[in-house]
């Protein structure tokens, strides 16, 4: 992977959409905009407890996945970016070739992969598909999030270029397969703790599982109820 040309850059305001309060319904922009430690200028986040913040400043989602969802569900909806609420749309960057701790130069900014995106029930409401978020989690087609190492001006017209990959870096898919797919596997959890660039929130959950032998309740995040 050298330089990846982005298909789109998106930002949105909090609004009542899809029967809920969300900023998921974003619009594309070709402007040069400022990327701060907490995200793109003009982009908002409705649930700051679960989204946004310095370790979840940007969300990137592979454009290739939309054809998969179309084939899987065969329903008459507009499967296209930015339907997952992503800020960045791309082809060629996937959960299988993007790693935790990867640093990318994007315009004047430097961004670093911090964690997979944790699917939530709002995706199910957005698409009108029961358990869509559960399915996304099960197959690890969830995209990933970034922290901002260096703030700066960015644009869809500027490519994303990998400039550093840590030693022993795990792919997004490998992390998801353990964290979601085998969540009490001590060997796997230990591997996750050896990823120093994994977000603090994910690392703390891994530590809790190792200490207690219990997986945190995912029902509210995935289903919207306890």
Query: Radius of gyration, Cα only, in angstroms?
Result: 17 Å
Q: Please summarize the sheet with the most strands.
A: 9 strands, mixed
Mean pLDDT: 94
Q: Within the largest sheet, what's the order of strands?
A: 1-14-10-11-12-8-9-2-5
Strand content: 15-25%
What count of helical segments does DSSP give? 7
Structural class: alpha+beta
Q: Return residue spans where pLDDT drops below 50 for at least 5 consecutive residues.
A: none
SSE sequence, one letter per element: EEEEEEEEHEEEHHEEEHHHH
Portion of residues in helices?
25-40%
Please report the total strand number as a whole number.
14
3D shape? globular
User: What distance lies between the first and last C-alpha atoms, to the nearest angstrom?
Assistant: 42 Å
